[in-house]
Amino acid sequence: EDQVTQSPEALRLQEGESSSLNCSYTVSGLRGLFWYRQDPGKGPEFLFTLYSAGEEKEKERLKATLTKKESFLHITAPKPEDSATYLCAVLRSNDYKLSFGAGTTVTVRA
Amino acid sequence: EPEVTQTPSHQVTQMGQEVILRCVPISNHLYFYWYRQILGQKVEFLVSFYNNEISEKSEIFDDQFSVERPDGSNFTLKIRSTKLEDSAMYFCASSTTSSQPQHFGDGTRLSIL
What we know:
Oligomer: heterodimer
Helix content of chain A: under 10%
Shape of chain B: globular
Distance between the termini of chain A: 41 Å
Radius of gyration of chain B: 13 Å
Largest interface: A-B, 23 and 26 residues
């Protein structure tokens, strides 16, 4: 069975304090790994797709990387508006469904 | 920017009643999905739909559930006889292809009394 594990569960940062979130996965035949941001009471908002080991994607203060076993989401110099739950999800070959991790809730204090 | 829209935002229903959740996917998308998230738990896949038929479904998606694309723009999830454990946020999503990102709506909060 596919396993997607995110750590830590929660992260409290001071504004400007950079950090990384981890998503480790065990899946046969990874087709893609997706990062989403979810604000309270809202649906997941798409951030990045990574398709192969070594790939990196960047957007503003966020950078996502992928290896054969895990993905990292790096937050550089975060601001309070970066506070959210960040979700990792995997898509397996020949599947249609995303398998989600439990998420990391990030709180950035001014 | 195009978005997935869901109605209603909150639905309160008596146990045993039928409920229909509605979604308007992004217009050029061909793949449609329903997920649910019970409070405090992971987002869980329910069903995917392509070319007017179910392409994959989870164990959760039993005979009480059905999906339909009644016209060119709407995508619906029906629960025939709701149970207390059906209380959750239900998210609709859509994508251009099966490997492209799935874009989610803001969900319908379903409360079963």
